[in-house]
# Entry
Amino acid sequence: MRTILLYLLCATVLTGCLEDRCTDTITYIGYEPVILSAGSWRNDTFPVSEGTTFCDPAAFYVYGKLLFVLDRNAGLHVIDNSDNSAPRPLKFLDIPGGVGMAVRNNILYVNQYVDLLTFDLSDPENPEFLHRTENVFDLNTDFAAGIFGRGDVIIDYIETDQTMEVDCNTRGVEQEFIVFNDLVFLSNASDFRATSSGFAAATGTSEQVGTGGSLARFTINRGTLYAVDDHSLRTFSLDRPAEPEFRSRVEMNWGIETIFPYEDKLFIGANNGMHIYGLEDPLQPEHLSTVEHVLSCDPVVVQNDLAYVTMWGGSDCGNQGDQLLVIDVKNPRAPKEIQTVPMTNSHGLGVAGDRLFLCSGPEGLKVFDLTDDGLLGEELSATRDFPAKDVIVLPNQERLIVLGWEQAGIRQYDYDASGTPTLAGELQICQ
# Structure
C-alpha cells in the first residue's frame, strides 16, 4: 500500500506541473565568436605592408634608430625614429597575438599567442621571417588570451539575434548566466549580452640589445631571452640566435606583471611584491629575495643599486592607495625599503641620472629630482595634456618616448639638463 500511495502522489505532482507549464520565446542580442584556426595563424606567412598608423598600441620597444609598436590583436609596426619630430613608418607585420618583444643583434623576438617567432632585421624595411618555436607559452595567460581547443583563436564577435524558449514560471528570477547554442548570455538586471562559452579572455661586447618600457614582459640579458606571464618566468637560450631554445620555467605566484634587467639580475614586478632573481646561471635564474607589499600593480626600474617601484590600485590591482617605493638592492638577498612617497595615478616610470620620469595617467608625465642619495625629491615639471601610461628613457639622446593611456597614441619629447620635457613629435592612432 505504501508503494501505491507514493506512486499516486508522484503522478499527481507531475500532472499538476504539466497543467501549469507554459513557455515564452524571447529574443536576445548575442555575439557569435569569429574563430581563426591554428592552421591559419601558424602558416608562417606574415604579410608585410607599408607602414600605417596603429589603432591600439599595447607595447613599445626601441632598438637603435628603430621604434617598434605592437598593435593589440593586429601586428607589429616598425618605425624609423631617427628624427623623433618626424618618425617615419617603415613596415607593418601582420602578427596577431603579440604581447612581448625584444631585439638582439638585429634579431627580433616576438610572441604570437603561445609561439615565439624570430625575424631578421638586417634590412628593417624588409624584415625576414626566420623561425617559429611552438607552444612555449601557456594557454589562458596574457600571451594566449582568447585561445582555446588546439590553438583556435577568437578574433572577433558578430552581433546576432538569438532566441530561446523559457519557462514562464522562471521569468523574473535573477540568473547569473544562460548557456544557449554555444553562447553565454550574461545577465545584468533584465538585460542580457552574449560572449563565447569557450576560453576568453652571458653578455659579450658584441651584444646589442634594445630597450623596453617598465611594463615590458620580454627582456634580454646575458645572452638569454626572458619572458614573464601571469605566474612564471621562462628562459630561452640564444646560442642559436635565429632559433631560440626554450630551456626552463620558474614557477612563481600568480600576479606577475613586469620584468626589468639590471647588471646580473632580474627585477620582476608582481601585484604583491618585487622579486629579485640572480643570473649566475643565466638559464636557471635563482630567487634571491622578495619585497612584499599589499595588493597593487607594480612596475620597477633600477639605477645605482636603487629600485624604484610604483604601486597603484584599481579593478585588477587591489585597493591600495598609490605610492612610490625606493628600495636599496645593493645586497639583493636583503633589500631594504628606504623611502615611501604617496602618489596619485602612478604607473610606468623611467630613471636617468638625477631625474625620475613618472607616468601618472590622466595627470600626464611628471619629472622628479633625485637627491645625491637617489631619493625622490621635488616635482620639477609635468606635462598634463597627455595621459601617460609608460615611458622609455634614452639618456644618451636626452629623449623620452611616452605610451599614452586608453589609446591616446605615443608622444616623444626631448629633455634638457633640468629634465624638462619639450614635445618633439607625436604618433597618432587610427581613427
